[in-house]
Amino acid sequence: LAKTTQPISMDSYEGQEVNITCSHNNIATNDYITWYQQFPSQGPRFIIQGYKTKVTNEVASLFIPADRKSSTLSLPRVSLSDTAVYYCLVGDMPSGNTGKLIFGQGTTLQVKP
Amino acid sequence: SAVISQKPSRDICQRGTSLTIQCQVDSQVTMMFWYRQQPGQSLTLIATANQGSEATYESGFVIDKFPISRPNLTFSTLTVSNMSPEDSSIYLCSVDTGDLYTEAFFGQGTRLTVV
Questions:
Q1: pLDDT in tens, A49-69
Q2: Which residue in the set A32, A45, A101 is minimally distant from B45, CB to CB?
Q3: Distances (CA, A) of A28 to A11, A51, A63, A77
Q4: Do A103 and B42 touch (CB under 8 A)?
């Protein structure tokens, strides 16, 4: 599984858009990019997954450039409840090893009022 | 989706003792996984719990220390044996449902403190 690099921490204010970038220079052809969110005292929760270009759901957007060596998780208009750790993972998700996840250090997002 | 229940949610244990953590899923799943999250750290995969066969352990984790059972497709246990304060962590159970775009589902974790 490809290694990922993210900023250790980020600060934002309520109502702002937050963009967290993840580097994955060694991503393989079959790899997907997945983001998880973890609140204190809870297990990680799936946010979004993509392979290329742009993916959007009710929670976030995921932007993936053509070379796929990085990706950006975009959280629109964050609130205090978005304060959490965000993990970027890369792997051959749909084809096996789907739950065998390699977590990087994650990005701790602190949203301030 | 899958709903995962872990028991206990937390425990304080004496060093040298063992604790068994239970993981129950509300649907049959092929793969179950156990992770450890040390204080302030990310998650590390301990092992894959296979139904009908021995668990597969990741580098740095051994069966004698972390024996795992998987008696059926909805249940697994992880035992932390002969505990020391260094075993104080959150232990999480995870499953995947095998859908095309797979997401893994996690239990709420078991917070273990060894004194």
A1: 999 999 999 999 999 999 999
A2: A101
A3: 31, 11, 17, 32
A4: yes
